[in-house]
Amino acid sequence: MTVLRDRWLPLSVLVLAIAALVASLVWVVGGTGVGGSVNGPGYGGMPMMSGHGGMMSGAPGHGPVRSLDDARRAADQFGQQRGLRTGEVMQFSNGYYAELLDSQSRGATEVLIDPASGFTQLEMGPAMMWNTAYGMTRTTPQSSPPSVTPDQALRIADQWLTQNRPGLHAADATAFPGYYTLHTLRDNQIVGMISVNAHASAAWYHTWHGQFVAMQEAATSGMPR
């Protein structure tokens, strides 16, 4: 019984983490926004989850991450093993974020880097639940074109922000397989991020980052905002 219980423990943790992520989903339907947030251990209050292979597996860290350059190196290690390279890197009060690009410089997925250990994993939320190429829904046929355009994604994000985060607006939609991620701004200064599903009028605010600190574009030096 002990062996069986130990074997099923990772699966139970996975199920609980997925349930927590679904609980944080926010929708924009008929002009009404409904949302929530997740509280728990891990990055910025989000539960950490290593998964069981593929893009779900995290990359072991090699010590504290103290700069955007350190975070880029950690993201590079995670991405290179999967044929991806690092694009934009951002620092927040709860840790680091990076986007990963494919060989055509298109958005592939998003990762989080733990500042204490350098552990890098697929970002919770849209990257895990909506990404049709690298997330949990990667079995979805890739030939299905998005029904939501970047301009529509911007309008959906702005509608949700108006109702739920007054004073913020969205900009800079980056397309990932199955969804878009946009910066959220106040007075043209970056505050955080929001994602919009590419096949439905659904928005998911990234509640786990904390306060924005700085950003680094691909192959550039740090650019505090």
Verbal overview:
With 225 residues, the protein is of the alpha+beta class. It has one domain. The chain is 24% helix and 30% strand. The protein contains 4 helices and 12 strands. It has helices at residues 2-23, 68-80, 126-129, 150-164; strands spanning 26-29, 32-34, 85-92, 95-101, 107-113, 120-122, 169-176, 179-186, 189-197, 202-205, 212-216, 223-224. The strands form 2 sheets. A 6-stranded antiparallel β-sheet has the order 2-1-10-9-8-7, covered by helices on one side. The protein has a 6-stranded antiparallel β-sheet with strand order 6-5-4-3-11-12, with helices on one face. The radius of gyration is 17 Å and the shape is globular. The termini are far apart. Residues 1-54 and 220-225 have low confidence and may be disordered. This is Peptidase propeptide domain-containing protein. It comes from Saccharomonospora cyanea NA-134.
Short description, anyone?
This protein is α+β, with helices and mostly antiparallel strands. It is built from four helices and twelve strands. The protein has one domain (2-224).
Task: Describe the secondary-structure layout.
Elements (H helix, E strand, L loop, with lengths): L1 H22 L2 E4 L2 E3 L33 H13 L4 E8 L2 E7 L5 E7 L6 E3 L3 H4 L20 H15 L4 E8 L2 E8 L2 E9 L4 E4 L6 E5 L6 E2 L1
Antiparallel strand pairs: 1-2, 1-10, 3-4, 3-11, 4-5, 5-6, 7-8, 8-9, 9-10, 11-12
Protein name: Peptidase propeptide domain-containing protein
Organism: Saccharomonospora cyanea NA-134
Q: Characteristics of this structure?
A:
six-stranded antiparallel sheet, single chain, 30% strand, alpha+beta, 225 residues, Peptidase propeptide domain-containing protein
